[in-house]
Automatic annotation (TrEMBL):
Pfam families: HATPase_c, HisKA_3. The chain crosses the membrane at residues 35-52, 64-81, 88-108, 114-131, 138-155, 167-188. Residues 1-25 have a biased composition (Pro residues). The lineage of its organism: Bacteria, Bacillati, Actinomycetota, Actinomycetes, Kitasatosporales. GO terms for cellular component: membrane. CDD domains: HATPase_UhpB-NarQ-NarX-like. This is histidine kinase. InterPro entries: HATPase_C_sf, HATPase_dom, Sensor_HK_TwoCompSys, Sig_transdc_His_kin_sub3_dim/P. It catalyses: ATP + protein L-histidine = ADP + protein N-phospho-L-histidine. Keywords: ATP-binding, Kinase, Membrane, Nucleotide-binding, Phosphoprotein, Transferase, Transmembrane, Transmembrane helix, Two-component regulatory system. It comes from the Bacteria.
Length: 443
């Protein structure tokens, strides 16, 4: 079982930390994954025979030892592609043994304590180390390299009896070259890590930005729906309070029932106002005004037309929607906000274009259609790039009332927004066409 507790005294293995730096083995392209192996294979194939030949011929090292040192110094480069630190431990030991053999040889005028092949192979290994290991590990490798070079350089023969001198001191050369390679490789690795972190942060920021936009739009919709419900709760409370005074012949039991209804409505209204304080921001106090509906579309169209965008409005028979008991207040508000946002997008992104707004209804659905064509003449846009927040808000409004939204560009360069909303919200049942007038005793 994955959730089982390990028995006492048993050590739990923790997963290894991810290896920093670039990992060609995870590259999407195959040739990129194979390229490091091809490079180190070329170095290994050339360094092994060269090292054995140079140690045997130029330094007088035993042929068997020369061949073993060639494999030990250059062979681990194949391991360095994936495990450079383990390869370095093998190589540094082999290089030190080879340097001791070189210092004990009778060769005069030859580079020591490191042979040229050792320097080439070690620098290739330093590249792998700097690209895969941490800064602390790289610094430790360079300090060990420096210490070994200084100790072995101190064991060089300073001169000969005939006035000749030993060959070039490659210890100092390896210290300098390895330091430069390790430093440059570390800089390249850290730069790559920084770029990867930036890409990850940008992706996270974009996700958070979209999520924040959705939450803000939901909060705004919740505030507006609260205003609609709060209005009806207030009406219920006022009607229940005034009913005993408006109606004659109200008994005490009925009067108490009205008082109970009014008290419950006031309590619910108080709870909703406390919720409103949480939903509203401090700068949103102006939203306490009554929320608009389809009866305000004429004012919205006139204001948009004055803003430079001609709008044609098509509505059903006057009063057939706004006074109908079938049209939910939430749907009425959502339809208005969809038209408002669609016209705002036309003003921002297609100034000068002609917009057509059509609202139609059948027995069960309300259809809102906003279509705009391309601008009649080139006009400087108010915004050249959109955030998509408007479409997110429209989609969220439609989803909350159980409708559908279809929005997208047109072939001629215009844009179309079509919303199909139910006459009542999903939680609000339809009213029957004819009330049941039968008595309880009727069959």
């Amino acid at each position: 079982m994955s959730g089982a507790t390990p028995p006492p005294g048993r050590k739990v293995r923790t997963p290894p930390e991810p290896v920093p730096g670039p990992q060609p083995g995870r590259a999407p392209r195959r040739w990129v994954r194979r390229l490091p192996y091809v490079i180190v294979l070329g170095f290994t194939a050339s360094l092994i025979p060269t090292t054995a030949q140079v140690l045997g011929n130029d330094y007088g090292v035993n042929d068997g030892l020369a061949g073993a040192l060639g494999f030990a110094q250059a062979g681990p480069l194949l391991l360095a592609v994936r495990r450079p630190l383990q390869a370095w431990w093998i190589v540094i030991v082999a290089d030190v043994v080879g340097a001791v053999a070189v210092l004990q040889s009778d060769a005069v005028g030859r580079p020591s304590p490191w042979t040229p092949m050792v320097i080439v192979g070690y620098l290739v290994l330093c590249v792998a180390l700097s690209l895969r290991e941490t800064r602390r590990t790289v610094l430790g490798v360079w300090l060990v390299t420096t210490a070994a070079s200084l100790v072995l350089s101190a064991g060089r023969d300073p001169g000969t009896s005939d006035g000749g001198t030993d060959g070039p001191n490659t210890g100092i050369l390896l210290i300098i070259l390895s330091g430069v390679v390790l430093l440059l490789g570390s800089l390249v690795r850290e730069r790559g890590e920084t770029r990867r972190r930036l890409v990850e942060q940008e992706a996270i920021s974009e996700t958070e930005r979209a999520r924040r936009t959705l939450l803000e739009e939901r909060a705004r919709i919740a505030r507006e729906l609260h205003d609609v419900v709060a209005h009806h709760m207030t009406v219920i409370a006022v009607q229940a309070d005034s009913a005993p005074y408006r109606l004659s012949g109200v008994s005490d039991d009925v009067r108490g029932e009205f008082e109970s209804i009014a008290a419950g409505a006031r309590d619910s209204l108080g709870e909703m106002r406390r919720l409103l304080q949480v939903l509203r921001s401090e700068d949103a106090q102006q939203e306490r005004a009554p929320q608009p509906g389809l009866d305000k579309l004429h004012q919205l169209v006139e204001a948009t037309t004055r803003g430079g965008v001609p709008v044609e409005l098509s509505l059903p028979e006057p009063g057939s929607l706004t006074t109908s008991t079938k049209l939910s207040p939430a749907v009425d508000l959502s339809a208005y906000r969809i038209v408002q946002e669609a016209l705002s997008n036309v003003v921002r992104h297609a100034p000068g274009a002609t917009a057509h707004v059509s609202v139609s209804a059948d027995e069960r659905h309300l259809t809102v259609l906003v279509v705009n064509g391309p601008a009649a003449k080139p006009v400087s846009r108010l915004e050249w790039s959109g955030t998509g927040h408007g479409l997110v808000g429209m989609g969220e409004r439609v989803r909350l009332v159980g409708g559908t939204l279809d929005a997208g560009p047109l072939p001629d360069g215009g844009f179309r927004v079509a919303a199909r909303l139910p006459m009542t919200t999903p939680d609000e049942p339809d009213e029957p066409d004819e009330p049941d007038k039968r008595s309880p005793s009727s069959p």
